[in-house]
Amino acid sequence: MTTRFRRRHPATAAIAGTCAVGLALALVTPTQAAPRGPDKEATATGHGGAVAALDPYGAQAGLEILRRGGNAVDAAVAASAALGVTRPYDGSIGGGGFMVIYSADTGEVTTIDSRETAPAAMEPDVFIDPDTGSPIPFQERRVSGLSVGVPGLVRGWEQALTDHGTMPLHRVLQPAIRLAQGGFVVDDEHQRRTENNRDIFHDFTSSRETFLVDGEAPEAGTVIRNRDLARTYRLLARHGATVFYEGEIAEAIADAVTNPPVVPGSSRNVRPGEMEVADLADYEVIEREPTATSYRGFEIYGMGPPSSGGSTVGEALNILEGFDLDELPHEEALHLLIESSALAFADRNAYLGDPSFIDIPLRGLLSDEFAAERRTLIGADASTKPLAAGDPWPYDDGTPGAAPADPATARTDGSTTHLTVADGAGNVVSYTFTIEQIGGSGITVPGYGFLLNNELTDFEPDPDHPANAPAGGKRPRSSMSPTIVLDADGAPVAAFGSPGGARIITAVLQVAVNHLDLGMSLPEAIAAPRLSNLNGPSTGTEPELIDSPVGAALTARGHQLSALTGIGNVTGVAFLPDGRLQAAAEPVRNGGGSAVVLHPDN
Ligand code: GLU
């Protein structure tokens, strides 16, 4: 849908980003000063290239590769590998992800799907307890071999570098190898996340050895190493992805899934999975068309199925395009954001899944006509939720659609990581990757230093679910929403994404509206307080909003606001009208992220 072109670039004061180099690589001794990690700024503006990540080590690794002449794809893989060391519970080679790439050469956007895939032997009723006939409780599904999907990240790196990068894998892995071998300084987030997983890690010999120190979380300010992961990365550097999918790492993964390394005497019931080495050998990355949504003169590119991110953000934007958000009181704009999110989630829950297994009315879901139909359901007051799914099929291929019988749920827990990179030539990467929960399945591959995902809990446990039931070879539906925005001339405007379970979608949607409609700079758009409705009766709302006149006005419209802190954890890069790049990360949420540019403004 294109109405009119309104590019509003916020002329915000840019904060020049300077980041210290020189990682602390030694263990603390009484005679040494306490080690410090790299400095961390949430905003950086300048030229030549930009990286925004959830952690300064990841951002610095990407910057190092840009400095050495790598492009945005090279830098994104380097940053991803570094985050696998310093943020090992959010995303790693034990998981998968989605990379959206804009090529300055061709002007085209493509996506690389390295989503985890169910082993061939997976049965639809895998998550039903045979004794009770009910779904196995979530935490038991999570901490099991059953939930582990075949990891796709390494093949994704390989394909991205081969098709879109300029450097070989062994070169971009060097910063991460140094970090894993030499060590990094634990921060409060790492300590907190380890503490939250301590009891699980304690029950696996490999996780206890890799992530705990004397059975406890390492303390913030200490230096830790992961020599097993350094060795694994060196194997990848030497042999490429083959060693991961057909060699010794494949064997170790299949063994850990089928025979989880539970500590003798542990009372934890860890169900084994059925992954075989052949499942790893068969894993394929899929390069897919992005979703594309025209919105007020911008083209919004996102991730298509099996992610629900691109279509749900796109549908909500199409609905919102019928309102002049910038001319409305903020409270009314947020009311419309809540209602459009709820409608888009009703449709997402009904229709999205793995396109290799189900027919998805993607064209219909993203059509202006379907959005217009859905928009008529929005009134001045809050609707009663959950709202029913609409029928996008008539706007797709004309097939009369059957209303879905059993819409799926939108799970809100979990975590992942997002990084955004732009290089001096104008290439852009928006990359979200994950092992699902913070700490994934809790199972570390013995001797290799990385956690396995629990991505298959993103399937509905109910085998009768029409769109997202488990099946061998299937990819579970995702909410990850790596996004790139181009202007009417095809030039990049911004790129961003977030972790946060299904709330990824609403965080990305709100940042898009803040930046593209409401005149906020990208740093302002990211920092602004968020709310999130996933088509449920209550709207998760950050404290700054809930306690404000805006919150009171939303309540007066009938919205049930429930206090929720830390919705999403966004990073992005904006392309300023004067040609500068502005990297932006969360200033506060979840400890804040890290933004760097190659040549900062002074
Ligand atoms: N498993 C989630 C998804 O693919 C990502 C992890 C998260 O919840 O943040 O949607």
Return residue spans where pLDDT drops below 50 for at least 5 consecutive residues.
1-31
CATH architecture of the domain at 309-351 and 359-401 and 538-564: Orthogonal Bundle
Rg over CA atoms, rounded to whole Å, is 23 Å
What is the CATH class designation of the domain at 309-351 and 359-401 and 538-564?
Mainly Alpha
Largest sheet: 13 strands, antiparallel
What does this structure look like?
This protein is of the alpha+beta class and 602 residues long. It has a domain at 309-351 and 359-401 and 538-564: Serum Albumin, Chain A, Domain 1. Helix content is 32%, strand content 15%. The chain has 20 helices and 18 strands. The chain has helices spanning 56-67, 72-86, 138-142, 153-164, 169-172, 174-182, 188-202, 205-211, 227-239, 242-245, 248-258, 277-281, 309-320, 330-351, 362-365, 368-375, 503-516, 522-527, 543-546, 549-556; strands at 43-53, 96-102, 109-113, 184-185, 223-224, 286-288, 291-295, 298-302, 416-423, 428-434, 483-486, 492-497, 531-532, 538-541, 560-563, 571-575, 581-585, 594-600. It binds glutamic acid.
Topology overview:
Blueprint lengths: L42 E11 L2 H12 L4 H15 L9 E7 L6 E5 L24 H5 L10 H12 L4 H4 L1 H9 L1 E2 L2 H15 L2 H7 L11 E2 L2 H13 L2 H4 L2 H11 L18 H5 L4 E3 L2 E5 L2 E5 L6 H12 L9 H22 L10 H4 L2 H8 L40 E8 L4 E7 L48 E4 L5 E6 L5 H14 L5 H6 L3 E2 L5 E4 L1 H4 L2 H8 L3 E4 L7 E5 L5 E5 L8 E7 L2
Parallel strand pairs: 14-15
Antiparallel strand pairs: 1-9, 1-17, 1-18, 2-3, 2-10, 3-6, 4-5, 7-8, 8-11, 9-10, 11-12, 12-16, 13-14, 16-17
Helix pairs in contact: 1-2, 2-6, 6-9, 7-8, 13-14, 13-16, 13-17, 14-20
Bound molecules: glutamic acid.
The site of glutamic acid (GLU) has 14 residues, from loops.
